[in-house]
Automatic annotation (TrEMBL):
Protein name, UniProt field: Carbamoyl phosphate synthase small chain
PROSITE patterns: GATASE_TYPE_1 (PS51273)
Any GO BP: 'de novo' UMP biosynthetic process
InterPro entries on file: Anth_synth/Amidotransfase, CarbamoylP_synth_ssu, CarbamoylP_synth_ssu_N, CarbP_synth_ssu_N_sf, Class_I_gatase-like, CPSase_GATase1, GATASE
Organism, scientific name: Fumia xinanensis
């Protein structure tokens, strides 16, 4: 790692100050300070829209050892408000490597901080919960006034901010006669993998901007709808919730993922609550209540469906978090819908959760056959 004299600081909302060194972009940014336990996949996290408005701390002590490349982007740009690591690697080694993480962060305008005790920071966030913070390369002159600014920060208009450049209607695949189904994706901040999962199942996809009304979505003759993952408070986007409610009334099959899971629950008169520090990382254990099997899943969320508000006449809790027993997935009874808090992924192992896409496609086919 290159030794640099550029200093950088993190000031937490509770007044705790960390002094370290700067990499990536320079300047100042306020955001929600969170931590992720993932040991790899840092570039995917940096470009994941669900991290909008957040300052991400990596608990793994060395980041950047395999560099960055154009193929591992979750989206076309970064959405983080800051990035914190114990140490970054300036000599990455990998046959796919196209550059180092320092240059990547500078190009993306993301402020980086390294050389602090990330274990200490993580313990603070675990004990006190997610809190706001300022990451800066500029000396803090007025701490009291700065703390007031930090305390006032909230993540606002998150979905609109990460989808503002998305066309109102984007037909992303053209399988033609080979396509078995036409699936709409309501883009709340999704990554590119969703359309690939549908293509693998011979489904054409149409991506809709969250500003699209339900009538426009239904006019495009889609057989089913995926409510994608995304950032922010699920209760904030009233217009999107209205759209989902109208889609429910139409009876079209739906699958919710992440934020989509939460908003589908809200549209069915359930409630969501904010978590102490959320579930973030690639090692979140989830139990299937039907089979008793535990899956290791990838998650990033600070809100969860309040299990006490799940009406058994409306839906069953299909998945629970193995640690805190919170709701991780629902199957609905009177509407053709299922939803999960985690990101279904296929890796060919016994931890593969991509079968959920198969369940959704089969649901759509049954509904289409009626």
């Amino acid at each position: 790692m290159i030794t640099t004299e550029r200093k950088a600081w993190l000031l937490l909302q509770d007044g705790t100050l960390f002094e370290g060194k700067s990499f990536g972009a320079t300047g100042s940014s306020i955001g929600e300070v969170i931590f992720s336990t993932s040991m790899a996949g840092y570039q995917e996290a940096l470009s994941d829209p669900t991290y909008y408005g957040q300052i991400l701390t990596q608990t793994f002590p060395l980041i950047g050892n395999y560099g960055v490349n154009s193929e591992d982007m979750s989206a076309d740009r970064c959405f983080l408000h800051g990035y914190i690591v114990r140490e970054w690697c300036d000599t990455p080694s990998n046959f796919r490597c196209e550059g180092d993480i320092d240059k990547f962060l500078r190009e993306q305008g993301v402020i980086g901080l390294y050389g602090i005790d990330t274990r200490h920071l993580t313990k603070i966030l675990r004990e006190k919960g997610t809190m706001n913070g300022l990451i800066t390369t500029e000396a803090i002159r007025d701490k009291a006034n700065t703390l007031k600014k930090i305390a006032k920060y909230t993540v606002k208009n998150a979905v609109q901010s990460v989808t503002e450049e998305t066309p109102l209607l984007n037909e992303t695949s053209q399988l033609g006669p080979k396509a078995e189904l036409r699936i709409g994706i309501l883009n709340l901040g999704c990554c590119d993998y969703l359309k690939e999962e549908m293509l693998d199942r011979e489904c054409d996809t149409v991506i809709f901007n969250p500003n699209q009304p339900a009538s426009t979505i239904l006019e495009n003759k889609v057989d089913g709808i995926i409510l994608s993952e995304g950032p922010g408070d699920p209760a904030e986007d009233k217009d999107v919730l209205k759209t989902i409610e109208e889609l429910i009334d139409d009876g079209i099959p739906m699958m919710g993922i992440g934020l989509g899971h939460q908003m589908l629950a809200l549209a069915n008169d359930m409630k969501c609550r904010r978590m102490l520090h959320g579930h973030r990382g690639a090692s979140q254990p989830v139990i299937d209540t039907l089979t008793g099997k535990t899956y290791i899943t990838s998650q990033n969320h600070g809100y969860v469906v309040n299990e006490e508000t799940v009406d058994e006449d409306v839906a069953n809790i299909r998945y629970k978090n193995a640690n805190d027993k919170s709701c991780e997935g629902l199957t609905y009874k009177d509407i053709p819908a299922l939803s999960v808090q985690f990101r279904p992924q296929g890796d060919g192992s016994d931890q593969d959760t991509a079968f959920l896409y198969d369940e959704f496609v089969e649901m759509v086919k049954r509904q289409a056959a009626r």
